[in-house]
Design brief:
This protein is mostly helical. It is built from eleven helices and no strands.
């Protein structure tokens, strides 16, 4: 994990993130122009035009996710901070990307059918209202992880600072698998596997909601254009293809974050080191998410 952190620091110091953002923005522009041609092909009834558009939308979603974005921050931070099974975190990454696509569909069709909003109006709402709200929500989730990890860390070190256990004996009761203590017959807190499932539905809703609040501007462009061209189904399908393209990146971030977390935990021994290490990771991840989201929020407002 230290090697990965050092690599990221060097990448940032060498202007790597700015170059990556420029590359991603150029890719988005190129595929947005290609999507406009694909829509004309669909309108003209050209064979294979729908499949081509779906591929272009997927690629656009990929480039959108590669650039600076809140989804990677939240998924990666949560994966580092919470011992969540990799399949569950990957599922959350996919669900959040598809929910973001659904937000775009909802915003556009409520806007055009109910309020008669223009494209500029909806883009303004996405950029100046929903984007700051999304960053604020993600910052709140980071603080939530920070506070929860801090509470767990305080509980983990309390028996040591007190000098004795609750039962008057001084051996370590922790067990990596959450089994009962042999001398007193019951478990002394959840195992990492059990802790990963605590409040999972609430955490899932927070993660998905924090990412889905802010729709992709490219999806708004596609949906409005296809509505005007009377090819609504192609626009909605393309928006969800964008979501899957975005998910291809966030799933990779989820896999990397879980690998980094498990690599760090493998260095810890059984017992107290593991019991303290888990909340320390959660505190660090929560602080990182809150800090980055706070910086993005300040830029957005």
């Amino acid at each position: 994990m230290l090697v990965a952190a050092a690599t990221l620091a060097l990448f940032w110091a060498g202007d790597g993130f700015d170059r990556l953002a420029r590359w991603a923005a150029e890719g988005q522009r190129a595929f947005q122009n290609a999507m406009a041609g694909g829509l004309r092909a669909i309108k003209g009834g050209q064979p294979g035009a729908v499949a081509t558009l779906m591929g272009l939308c997927f690629a656009y979603g990929f480039f959108h996710a590669v650039g600076p974005g809140h989804g990677k921050i939240l998924i990666g931070g949560y994966g580092l901070g919470r011992r969540v099974p990799v399949r569950r975190l990957a599922g959350l990454a996919i669900a959040s990307s598809l929910a973001q696509a659904a937000t775009a569909v909802g915003l556009v069709y409520v806007g055009v059918l109910v309020f008669d909003w223009s494209r500029e109006r909806m883009t303004w709402i996405a950029d100046h209202a929903l984007e700051p709200l999304s960053y604020a929500a993600i910052g709140a989730i980071g603080l939530y992880l920070l506070m929860r990890g801090g509470g767990r860390l305080a509980r983990a070190v309390r028996p040591v600072t007190a000098g004795s256990g609750a039962h008057g004996h001084h051996h370590d009761h922790s067990d990596r698998h959450g089994h009962a203590c042999e001398s007193c017959g019951h478990a002394h807190g959840p195992s990492p596997e059990q802790a990963a499932g605590i409040r999972s539905w609430r955490d899932a809703a927070l993660l998905i909601g924090g990412i889905a609040i802010r729709p992709c501007t490219g999806a708004l462009f596609l949906l409005i254009l296809t509505w005007r061209m009377d090819i609504v189904a192609a626009g909605i399908a393309g928006t969800f293809a964008m979501g899957l393209g975005t998910a291809s990146v966030t799933v990779a971030v989820a896999l990397a974050s879980v690998s980094m977390r498990e690599g760090a935990l493998m260095a810890l021994s059984e017992g107290r080191a593991l019991r303290v290490g888990l909340p320390v990771l959660e505190v660090a991840a929560g602080a990182l998410v809150a800090l980055v989201a706070g910086q993005l929020l300040l830029r957005a407002i």
